[in-house]
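Section 4.2 – Deliverable D4.2 (structural model, holo form)

The reporting period included a commitment to supply a predicted holo structure for the target in complex with WT7. Inputs used:
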Amino acid sequence: MSEQKNVVETSEAEIAVHWQEEEYITPPPAFVGQANLTDPAIYDRFSLDNFPDYYTEFAQLLTWYKYWDEVLDTSDAPCWKWFKGGKLNASFNCIDRHLAQHKNKTAIHFVPEPEEERVQHVTYQELYVRVNEFAALLRDTAGLKRGDRVTIHMPMSAELPITMLACARLGVIHSVVFGGFSANACADRIIDSNSRVLITMDAYYRGGNLLNHKAVEDEACTIAEEGGQKVDMLLVWQRYPGKYSSDSPPVPGRDVVVNEELKNYFGVRVEPEKMLAEEPLFLMYTSGTTGKPKGCQHGTGGYLSYVTAMSKYIQDIHLEDVYWCMADIGWITGHSFIVYGPLALAASTVIYEGVPTYPDAGRSWRIAQQLDVNIFHTAPTAIRALRKIGPDEPAKYNYTFKHMTTVGEPIEPEVWRWYREVVGRGEAVIVDTYWQTETGGFLCSTVPGINPMKAGSAGPGVPGIHPIIFDENGKVIEPGAGKAGNICIQNPWPGCFQTVWGDRDRFVKSYFSMYNKNPDSKDWRDWPYMTGDAAVQSADGYVRILGRIDDVINVSGHRLGTKEIESAALTVPEVAEAAVVPVAHEIKGKEPELYVSLKPGIQPSPELQQKIADAIVFEIGKIAKCKNVWLVPDMPKTRSGKIMRRVLGAISNKGDVGNVMTLANPEVVEEIQKMVAE
Ligand code: WT7
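Output (structure tokens):
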């Protein structure tokens, strides 16, 4: 562990030294003139003195069957219960309540990847019909009921939010697995959540190919069963309704083709379940320090209040906007800011099936032009890719963004400026939203109608969030001190996840124990939430995130556990030891690079290298693909036998390995350096 800390300390210090303050840029008056939130008094109203009551302002954005008895119940600290006793339904809030005024309005614009296929516009009325019918199918064909878990492994499609909202209508807890994840990763999540039903789609387009997605599910079902969780029913949506588009046929007795089965439910309506605010809405798995991904459990009332407020005040969505969050629904960004937040506001949300740069670098901007998108939301990795392959493309299309978001990883000021000047034509306001799978919604961001922007800086805590930066010993690092530390949040907030599914101890240990002094305390002040990120805060309170302090690599704005990758490598029998390090990558931000030593008597070979590389993609998915797999004669180790990841990281990044003479095997460092330099 101590080596790992060194890595962070070195790089943090480096960045802190090289970091220079950027200029403030004031939001364009045209934006401020129409913004949902422009009164700075919100920061006073949302001061800690008024905690937790200020959050009722967010809850008031929703429609409740019954109001809460208590805003925040701390009796099971730090498993907070928000809006205790309140009752609501997320599907009702995202659909039914809009019908009276907006039934004709587009809820979802689905953009297929092939450009010759027309965009589908699903109105709120149509969404209502389809969610009800599918909810009836889930209840009657699949036998699902309130509290059951269901795994969903689907591509970007209108059917994905329909599936999620149908689950929410019944009180079924959905666990959406990113469509690009492997069968193995999907199976792990089926097992952990005890899902007896899996929902998928037969095929989807990606990069010009119609992928046979159903084949992945057959494999996932097999692996899950071996791991102790049988999938009784696999529900398969058709990419082209009425036509089966996969080479893997339905398995009799297990698989149900949704579009056929739905015929039995045409016209059926399902009463939404009146859920308690604290009942779980969904699970979203994310990587942590140990190998096993954590199922972050998000509640109904708190989560929905929070993402609705963030969509309104930070995303600044209005009814007449066309809002495009170019993320995947299989990540938290998609849950909060493609599906739940925007739909709770009766917004029109865009879902794009494929690759942003397919068939060419102008694709994203053509979509923006065609749908007249005016709010655009994406990650630095996509911005870098669009800039690299088509720096002049945005100018060729006729669209106007008033608001743009960046999310998921630090953005270089250079890239930020291109985003603002070229994509936003200097007219759009930008929010750099810092948050996590666990946090449900934003932690830090400027309020676009109030605060100026600063390139590369996420901004202050959003109203209601009170960040604090601690050093290793729990001492506060004051804003403007020029020193980095661990960024924590002083107060609970409604969007925060409730626990790690089935593992309360892990929840408490990973997020609270480091800075909690009294584990028995029921006072929220004793339980700062630890994000696991290193950050510096300037004198104005703006936060600059430097990266993770734990064994997690942020690839393309998503977390991959180093242990996950290393254990995937160790599934290859020839492998003795594996160590993964992050390497800077032009587009992805970071990329994993793997070092492997082999068991005695095993000879290195290109085939073996490939076998290990394949094992990682098989176990986790392409997102974890390593830049290189180096078969090294031995790992650089301390005398006590610990692998020096810091040294490997320096070699991969062509940095200074420092003094290695104290290692048990200093000679191996030079050998590895030579190997990597070739
Ligand atoms: C980690 C969370 C937030 C949803 C998508 C990723 C990093 C996130 C920013 C930002 C700098 C950021 C942090 C965080 N991160 N947003 N605006 N600036 N870093 O969710 O996979 O749970 O990853 O992403 O390191 O802890 P996630």
